[in-house]
Amino acid sequence: MSTKERLIEAGLRLLETEGPESLNARKLAGEIGASTMTVYTHFGGMTGLYEALVRRAFVQFGDALAALDRTDDPVADLLALGMTYREFASASPQRYRLMFGVTAPGSGIAAAHDLTEEGTPSAIPEASATFDELRRAVQRSLDAGRIRGDDAVAIAGQFWSMIHGFVLLELSGFFGTEGRGVTTVLAPHATNLLLGLGDDPAAVAESTRSARARFGVAEAALRVPGAGTAGG
User: Fold this and answer.
1) Is residue 109 domain-shared with residue 20, that is, in the same domain?
2) Domain CATH number, residue 26
3) Which of 65, 189, 200, 219 fits a 20 to 30 Å CA distance from 10?
4) Is the pTM of this model over 0.85?
5) How far is CA 205 from the centre of its chain?
6) Which tens digits make up the pLDDT trace of 136-159?
């Protein structure tokens, strides 16, 4: 592994184990047994290293989303994508916060685009690629006639707002630490959004059950209007 790669790996490791305040040139260089100047040689300074960490984190995030198996139920796949999103954030909360500029240092590195105008959320390609996974999942649901609309980007933005908001609140402890918020808050929210987009209640119930089974989420009394419970 090159020195540059070792610095990136050390940065991600320190970020998760000791928090963002641990990300300084002296500590990072010490992690790999190098001089502080190594950071400046390979990244031009800490700002360049922060950007490399954000880019690497988004690549890892994109890999996790892309690895999700696709089925013949596009809505179940869309819901499963949201669960994968949550799993990634829950496994590495500090990394997730850094990626979206919620924590210093490096906040604002993933320079935001106006999604409503430009159709892409970031100037960093690795970040935009993760949104494209969600947009494609939404487009599949549109093409299958499960939901209605003529702007996959805007609809993907709705789903993104839902899962991102939930994840940040959950990471902050507002939904406890046992995952109950998934069945009491996130799943009903997703159900309401799908129904609002025109999906059939019975189909939503089946897709919810299918997605939940893929992640081993416990049965819950998620009431889907007109279809009994999402748990069957």
Assistant:
1) no
2) 1.10.10
3) 65
4) yes
5) 23
6) 999 999 999 999 999 999 999 999
